[in-house]
Amino acid sequence: MLSLIRHRGPDEAGYYLDDGFAMGTVRLAIVDLASGSQPMSDPAERYWISFNGELYNHLELREELRALGRPFRTTCDTEVVLQAWVQWGPECLTRFNGAFAFAIRDAVTGDLFLARDRYGKRPLFYTEHDSGLLFASEMKAFRAFPGFRFTLDPRELASVFAVWTPLPDRTPFEGVRQLPMGGVLTVRDGRRTLRTYEELAVSAPPFEGSEDDAAAFVRETLRASVEMRLRSDVEVGVYLSGGLDSSIVTKLATDLSPSEVRTFSVEFENAEFDESADQRVVASHLGTRHSSVTVSGADIAEHFPAAVRHAEVPTFRTAFVPMYLLSRHVRDAGVKTILSGEGADEAFLGYSLFRETMLRASWHELSGEERKAGLARLHPELAHFGPAHQKHMAGLFQQFSEERLPGLFSHELRYQNGRFAARLLKDRTDPFADALEMVRTAPGYADLSAVQKAQWLEYKTLLAGYLLSTQGERMGLAHGVENRCPFLDPAVVRAAASVNLRFDDGSEEKAILKKAFRGELPASSLARRKQPYRAPGSAVFKDRRPDYLELVLSDTELGKLDWADPVFARKLVAKIMATPAEEISTKEDQAFVHLLSTAVLDQQFVRDTAWPDASPEADLKIRTVVDKRRVLPRAGGMR
Amino acid sequence: MDRTDRIRQFIEDRFLVEFGGEMTDGTDLFKTGVMDSFGYIQLMSFLEDEFAIGVTDEEILTDVFVSLDAIDAFVARKLAGQGAGQGDASCAG
User: Fold this and answer.
1) B16 with A395: Cβ contact below 8 A
2) Best interface-test mutation with B: which of A408, A416, A538, A573 has the largest number of B CBs within 10 A?
3) Does domain A211-307+316-342+468-527 have CATH number 3.30.450.20?
4) How far apart are CA B72 and CA B70, in angstroms?
5) Which of B34, B60, B66 lies closest to A391 in CB terms?
6) What is the CATH number of domain A2-149?
7) Which residue in A38, A393, A453, B80 has a CA-CA distance of 20 to 30 Å to A349?
């Protein structure tokens, strides 16, 4: 199992065995390179941990634990996690500020604890097999377990297509679950208990003070977050997209780093998607050592199957493929830890979705002129939102001014694209049934404002289920590069919630954040409207005709996809192939990428073909082996 | 091709649906996921151009564009109101 995920931790590996249990770690060494090997135990060798990720506040917690009499043998954050667990039990989880997933085995009682960070930055999948439990950081590890087979779950696929991402505890595969963000799973005497140790909080008491005070407060909170995330025994670089968020992270990193900061970017051959001019302005302004990888449509087509294999879920965009190539570039440059701007748009209301939600929620209280003004501000970059179509767009918004899907109001217009993609499936059950149930049962959700509900959904779906995972962690660790997100620090999320819409009406995106860094970044970065990071979509497959396109072009191949509706799939593929790229709608483009990526997953995971050669165990660099078996083992494995 | 068929054909081509079976002339195109923002604008532009009708600010805010039946009835009313003696054939061009 470890050899299938060794890309996540190419530095060394280790495993622990006892009766009926096994777990292991492939390690990406970042903190305490010499003595942080895993699995690691407490001095009494009762508790054993496999830890994936980073605990950023390990220095503070170490001091606290030392004061309580806990002994330490290393300077590694993994030992702090373990000692905190020994000291406080699962209550320690709310004290952690980090990106992590871990397993702790109590060798005395035989209990197993699995836990995951509050925003879902690091993955943890599990499944029941042959009356045992398997767990791993990537599902592909399960392939190595004797008798395990993947099956795509039609109901989950419908939900993924409709909502764009798996729900927090789901995967596209039958019987395979994720530990949800902020979750802890206890396995005791063969019984599993899952609970949430911390609910996602998108509201906070309003900031008391002036707007200037609020801007200073936001800046200081972010500075502290970046400072904590620069703790590392290896160099920390920055992903620079050219937008406001990564520019802020770069600015703070250059202020706080003792040495020159290296920044890394994706550039596109296709000018429509390229942001290199902005990236270079920021890099030059802040004096970073900048490098980039230039990505073409051919590159996306070539690396799509490998990137999907790492993503392990259907995707609706191709933009994760360039991130796969960027992490390879970063790793080749000798860097294995980077900071990025993920989480800023969710925390500080950066997406147009939030403005759209506010407009639709207040639609019936607005005059015709106010409605038009609101529409004009939404998507000035899109022709169909332009003045020529404003009257028509008002008609569309009228249709979406009343809630149809209880609790999902903010996303209903977006989910039209998902409904369309769900038609690719034979399964005709309501693709929103599970998302509706999720928000119906979420504690406190009903009391949130329309915009806060939109934020909550973004955190739970697009952020955790795509941006942090498919486009983030999975692509980074495909090449052993770890991502750290200063905007996803609990203090930053709280600060944002306390100042959002307190001093502005939300019509200018991230107004308080811009105010906090005015004068420190190039004027163009502060003035620029958010440009969503995008990559060329279905056109790259049509232009390049890679071999695997046959999976959806050929009737025979389509027939092998037992979850797909062949009539609609054929119709969609025919339209994509026959229509100029500029006439393909976003909805059609997304549905096509859903279809193709799921067909690739089917080929790789279900039919178990098109895998690279298996990695020999010798490549794992096994450094730690703890064998306490008296009989043969039966479960487990991670990072 | 008569008015209804032309509207039906446009919706089938643009939205990759087939009327008959699950999709009837009365099916709500929003609820079934047929209509997105881009497609809606395309449909409205088609109706105005193809039948040379204008849709007012008030009309656009009603429920007349949710199904094939409703769209067809709206276009028929507009054409009838536009000109005495003009029937479907006169705007088929």
Assistant:
1) no
2) A416
3) no
4) 5
5) B60
6) 3.60.20.10
7) A393
